[in-house]
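re: ur question from yesterday

yeah so i grabbed the chain u mentioned. its 232 aa long if i counted rite. heres the sequnce exactly as i have it in my notes:
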Amino acid sequence: MGARLLLVEDDDALAELLIYNFQREDFEVSRTADGEEALLLAREETPDLVLLDWMIEGGVSGIEVCRRLRKMPDTQNVPIIMLTARGEEEDRIRGLETGADDYVTKPFSPRELVARVSAVLRRVRPALAGERLEYGGIEMDTVAHKVKRDGATLALGPTEFRLLRHFLEHPGRVFSRERLLDSVWGRDSDIEARTVDVHIRRLRKAINVGDAPDIIRTVRSAGYALDSEAVA
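ran it thru and got these structure tokens back, copy pasting raw so excuse formatting
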């Protein structure tokens, strides 16, 4: 599964075009035309990047959504790209001062926007674009399918490899069992949620070799996270 994108755009035709282009590049896209719903979606499931229309209609403007996202703990560091027909310098500066990371003026090429989004993600989240993932002493080569911890090679089964990769792509983030089922096994899977617990135990056994500390954190009533700060 690619990066998770939250699209806030009230132009249905443009939204459909962008969803098509981003899904073709393996992005997972959630879309809303409403500012309040955008904030709710961002709280429920933190996106990797937000594409935010400045001129969305309704009670909460795009610029206000940007401001609130920057105040929310889970989204304060999530990249935000503003989409707007406004091209004046003062408007661009206002958007950037509010917390936007980039600014794209309509009309634009969907392919160019996909490239711009990918560039931002490479800058702030190299793991989403690279072949090598690293966190807490764990190194994963996603092409060679090799995993090491503190230099020692680990033996992982295919499911544990996918599970660890998902955690490495989102270090520190807590995932529910249901979310892990969707991301690792697929939305159409008939596997029960408790199966996740079995594979988490197998993954722990595989990566916590010797005296290595357990960096998989169990969060009661919430799920699991890869969190080196929880070791102490």
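noticed a couple things. Residues 79 and 120 are 7 Å apart (CA to CA). also The chain has eight helices and eleven strands.
anyway ttyl
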